[in-house]
Amino acid sequence: VFPESSLKVTGVDFLKSQNTRQHHTDGYNIQSLVVRRGQPFQVQVSLSRELRAADKLTLRFGIGENPMKNNGSLLSLKPEREDFNGWKISMVERKGKECLLSVTSSPNAPVGKYNLHVKTGSNIYKPENGVIYLLFNPWCEDDVVYMANDAEKEEYVLNDTGTIYVGSAYSIYDRPWNFGQFEEFILDACMYLLDKSKLSLAQRRDPAHVSRAMSALVNANDDSGVLLGNWSGNYVSGTSPMDWIGSVMILQKYYKTKKPVRYGQCWVFAGVLNTVMRCLGVPCRCVSTFDAAHDTEENLRVDVYLNDKGEKLNSLSFDSVWNFHVWNDAWMKRTDIPNGFSGWQAIDSTPQEQSQGRFQCGPCPVKAVREGDVYLPYDAKFVYAEVNADRVYWVVKKVNGKDKYFKVGTETQAIGKNISTKAVGQNRRVDITKEYKYPEGSKEERMSMQRAYSFLRPSGLMPRSGYASTVQTIGANTEPLVPKEPVTKTGLHLEIANTEPLHPGNPLEMAITVKISAPGNWTVDLIGSCQLQYYTGNVQANLGTIKETITLEGPSEMQIPLKIAPDAYMKTLSSVEDEVLILVTAIAEVKETNDKLTKETSMRFQYPPITVQMPETASLYNDFNCAFIFKNKLNVTLENCKLLVEGLGIFKMTTFELGDIMPGRIMKSEIVCTPTRLGEKKIVAKLISNQIKGISAEKGIFITE
């Protein structure tokens, strides 16, 4: 045998453009080949001579630091041989010195970065840039993340922009968010997180383990993960959570520095976790719950303490109701729990409570929350309480110099409302509450609740603040298992609404409507308060109170106005770093029957819009102009205005410093755009000032060849 006849590889072509098109990975901005598991891809191998029958040709795929055959981290594949760990390789055609090979990875292969070496006899060829990224595959029926509907895959895997719903149940609004899972360094950042997670090779096969690990790594607690949470109102040492408009800058900065990025709040954590999951190939959506309960210690109750003016007190509450909370749902078949709980799984990367010693949450089957099967992994009790707790109101009064607590109302249907996500293929909100809960009052809801209660330990009715431990029980009877809305003898009912638009700089004009349905003459004591609060329920400022006694001849109603002058709130509004909401609380008591009722409503300020002007369509690499126009229609000067704009595939995030915008003034900023990617693209803009924390706008453009 002459040495020159020994077979050598002279080159490997990863056929990137055809493979990535077939694998729906052509969007990734990366040199290497990115493919999805369980689906064939082709490589062309060039040889020093024609292949002969006696020649041995082997493709070796290695994952991790030190790939070895015995633990499955090294796969050695010969054409037409039996499969190896579920991987197969076949010869598509041989032409002269060229071989076209087809490789099919296992539909449950570990996801991550593989190195490809080609072995011929005793020669090993290492192609330059021989790294292949292997992702989850929602297009493959044998993959546990398989999703049958194409429009859903388009939205939950491939859409790199979206909307996160925030505000309050009374005024929900949308915050555009750029997920940007295909941008430069984002896939590498996700691979870095996978390595950092220390998941075993076997765990990397399973999206349940991967999504749980990612929920831990997106927050900085425990493991110096991506984002540091901060709800203090002081963000000088970083970026205020309100100033982000997408995940790209956060993940790029993290990947570059390997240090937590400052700062996040819940929608930022959810936006980043959504990017990470979509990037890895797991279908994922952002989910917003309005009036979400936090830290109920599994007793399914949140206590709200009011002073005798009806103002909410921060200091007494350990638990809280957030105006909104955002987490994620990831789509997968669960192989680790009984059948029937596959589909959407809640995961949450906002650091709230430790689970198995780390700040991580989920995956929790959404069906388990609905059915009350709260014993299922992971963290189902916590998620169940977030959307199903009761809210109990107490008034704290001094009696003989001691604090006494008086119960003034229980709401059994106030928590976990308007659960929302972005619609598939459309820019609108879709309500998915029915996926998390049965309709209030239905037979199924009662059964689900009884099931959940059998695994939880709801307490009797004691106020649960640290100060309250010495207080004797108020009404020693414990709650019935399925509490009903308090039925009052008079049919007392309260409604709170604004009567004029809530523009910063104008008086806040609101009204409390008292309704009574029982016939007769009734005397009602009403107290009402107005406060500014963060979305976490933390009160920032007391703005004013009313106290009235009214007489009603039932059935009838009366509207009591509540008006706050601009001077009462503008100073607070321009000194806080966060967006604040207007909280109105009302307590009514019917003298004749002792009926009591408490109601609260949070409302958002209303702002003038940003207008985005640009063509409907543009062609690849041809410049076009985009203008952002804002007219200050408010009665106040907006100080220190910044305009943040980003267009994925069009231009990088840009900030315009606009200084102060006086009332009536029109501001116009322009940017020259060069589209680098085809298809539907979006431009997102956000205006921030001392007085206003978030006026957003977005506009789509279609890029053609």
From TrEMBL:
Signal peptide, first to last residue: none
Matching SMART domains: TGc (SM00460)
Cofactor(s) the protein requires to work: Ca(2+)
Active-site residues from the entry: 266, 325, 348
Gene3D superfamilies: Immunoglobulins (2.60.40.10), Transglutaminase-like (3.90.260.10)
UniProt GO molecular function: metal ion binding; protein-glutamine gamma-glutamyltransferase activity
SUPFAM superfamilies: Cysteine proteinases (SSF54001), E set domains (SSF81296), Transglutaminase, two C-terminal domains (SSF49309)
Cofactor comment: Binds 1 Ca(2+) ion per subunit.
Presence of the UniProt keyword Calcium in the record: yes
Assigned EC number: 2.3.2.13
Binding-site list for Ca(2+): 388, 390, 440, 445
Key words of the record: Acyltransferase, Calcium, Metal-binding, Transferase
Ranges for domain Transglutaminase-like: 258-351
Family, per entry: Belongs to the transglutaminase superfamily. Transglutaminase family.
Full protein name: protein-glutamine gamma-glutamyltransferase
Classification of source organism: Eukaryota, Metazoa, Chordata, Craniata, Vertebrata
